[in-house]
Amino acid sequence: MTQYGVDLFLVLVLASLGLSALAIFISISRHRRNHSKAAVLPGSGEDFATEAARKVLREFEKNGQSVDAALVTWSPDTLRKILADELPDAQVIVVSNREPYIHNETKDGDVELVVPASGLVSALEPITRACAGTWIAYGGGSADRTVVDRNDRIQVPPGNPSYTLRRVWLSEDEYQGYYLGFANEGLWPLCHIAFTRPIFRESDWKAYEAVNRKFAETVVAEARNERPIVLVQDYHFALLPRMIRERLPEAIVITFWHIPWPNSEVFSICPWRERILDGLLCSSIIGFHTQFHANNFTESVDRFMESRIERADAAVSYGGQVTLVHAYPISIEWPVELLEALPSVEECRARIRKRFGIPADAKLCVGVERLDYTKGILDRFHALEELFIRHPEMIGKVVFLQIAAPSRGTLPAYKQLYEECLRYAEELNERYGNGTYQPVVLVAEHHAQKGVYEIYRAADICMVTSLHDGMNLVAKEFVASRDDEQGVLLLSTFAGASRELLEALIVNPYDAAMMSEAMLQALVMGPDEQRERMRRMRDIVRDNNVYRWAGSMLLDAARLRKRDDLDRVTALYDRATGSAGDNVVSMFERKQAVGFR
Ligand code: F6P
Q1: Angle at 295 between CA 297 and CA 553, to 5 degrees
Q2: Taking CB atoms and a 6 Å cutoff, what residues make up the pocket around ligand 1?
Q3: How confident is the model at residue 576 (pLDDT cuts 50, 70, 90)?
Q4: Which of 241, 279, 302, 525 is the most exposed place for a label (fewest CB within 10 A)?
């Protein structure tokens, strides 16, 4: 053997030893995780979670950056521990436009409670519960004012309160300009590749600014001290991080952008692009669902702002502030209790078929979302028609049930979509249906979580064919609902969820022929293949749950806070002693000298 051959051999042996060690480590960790609850004494599950979280923290400290948190069993307890150990006394404040509970007045004058159709709400609700935080949101329900106290607060969830919902009131003009106008006719189409032209009006921008200011004041009013952790949600509040920073300079502001971020060329369309970036860059952390969108954001900053980009650290320095720009894929709470409360899959199938008049021998394909042009609902109808054209033997054998929660219904683009959906569904039913068989059932109504899960459980196929989507939690909910390990997910390659749920049938919603063939594949897929795919996706969603999403951000926030604290101690010490950056004195001594706890 030549010297080169010997070297290569040694390298291969070492690499394979390394890989084996890694595999053994992962397998031991999995084993421990799988058995942690059942294994030993009561409480040991929690202890394991805490220990695992500590391990992550140690790694995290050692590397000076976020590590893969795969070894932690993420639960509400893990979050609470991270808060108690790493961010003691920190008050968590969530800010979003949409509120988690809406109180509406019924026709009979009663008050009904509605949980809105919103991925943001389903993800943030368990987190706020776990942190016993304060959630600030627009009070848009017709009975919202009647149920709050004199500080506009109400304890929620109803029946089992664990956090405070603080409602903010908006005038008709504010709502029109900030929410319908700038957020949903401007930023929404700007950030989604769905070929709907963004509309930017000066008056909408003014309203957006004013409403962001109003929310900033509410954050300040709700903050119990100078150092809350504020979780700013979504494109409704791009200016809020700056406004909070000006009033509470020591706050940690974590901003999460729930929708895609466009490339810098598209972003440049926005007349207030610099103001938006300036606002966001006052966040301590900005999160996106995918690395791709985080990169698009950084590229926009690079192009339009005087800033320094530290690519290796995924950080941006702007105006004396460092902001981490990271991908944190959002998820759901694994629905253990909900599944326990739901009927069996067989029962759900029977109920849903009866409720919507679906023949017992037809396969059921479902779509569940807000009625939004980014969701690709018409493209789904198109694919169904293509299936019937290419495979006429499937006519009569499949029914497509589309649940579309009304959304932003006063905007022209949404009205038009609704009309087109109605028209196309009618056409398909006329063309391919008969007296007893209707291939499309379109239900434009809001469904509560339990009802939605019943539909998922009744389905043979779930279609998530968004034209563009930050993540899409319907895909994850469908997978979580199927404890029978059956059902096929058709998932758009343009939804963030397709980066994680690789065992779905990944489709391009613009390609009707391809989608129709994927539908056929799903319709004829045997139970074994369904089980294999579903099992792997369920493992992913169970492990990468919403507590991991929030926990990863809080860990990053803890690191930032520690770094800020050290900077402050050094500055205070230097000022008190006149020593300019003298490294001989330990941090412990410095802390003692300036009375820092
Ligand atoms: O998924 C993106 C998103 O904007 C969420 O952030 C939001 O809650 C959801 O869509 C629903 O939209 P809206 O609150 O406008 O009804």
Answers
A1: 85
A2: 97-98, 118-120, 234, 258-259, 370, 407-408
A3: confident
A4: 302
Query: pLDDT of 112-166, one tens digit each?
Result: 999 998 989 999 999 999 999 999 999 999 999 999 999 999 999 999 999 999 9
Strand partners, 441: 401
Helix H or strand E segment including 416? helix 412-432
Question: Which residues, at least 6 apart from 173, have a Cβ–Cβ distance to it below 8 Å?
Answer: 207
Rounded-to-5 percentages of helix, strand, coil across the chain = 55, 15, 30
Distance 375 CA to ligand 1 centre (A): 12
Residue 83, token pair as written in the block = 């808060």
For 481, the 3-state DSSP assignment is helix
Q: Report the number of secondary-structure helices (H) and strands (E) in the chain.
A: 22, 18
Helix 473-481 and helix 527-543, axial crossing angle in degrees, nearest 10: 120
Q: Is 231 helix (H, G, I), strand (E, B) or coil?
A: strand
Ligand 1, atom nearest to 259 Cα: 2
**3-class SS at 194?**
coil
Quote the pLDDT of residue 185: 98
Q: Which residues of 141-150 are buried (b: 16+ CB within 10 A; e: fewer)?
A: bebbeebbee
Q: How far is CA 147 from CA 94, 95, 111, 141, 566, in A?
A: 20, 20, 9, 10, 45
Of all protein residues, the one whose alpha carbon is nearest to atom 8 of ligand 1 is 118
3-state secondary structure of 323: strand
The protein residue with its alpha carbon nearest to ligand 1, atom 10, reads: 118
Whole-number Å distance, alpha carbon 323 to ligand 1 midpoint, is 25
Identify which of 258, 371, 476 to mutate to test ligand 1's pocket (most ligand atoms within 8 A of the CB). Answer: 258
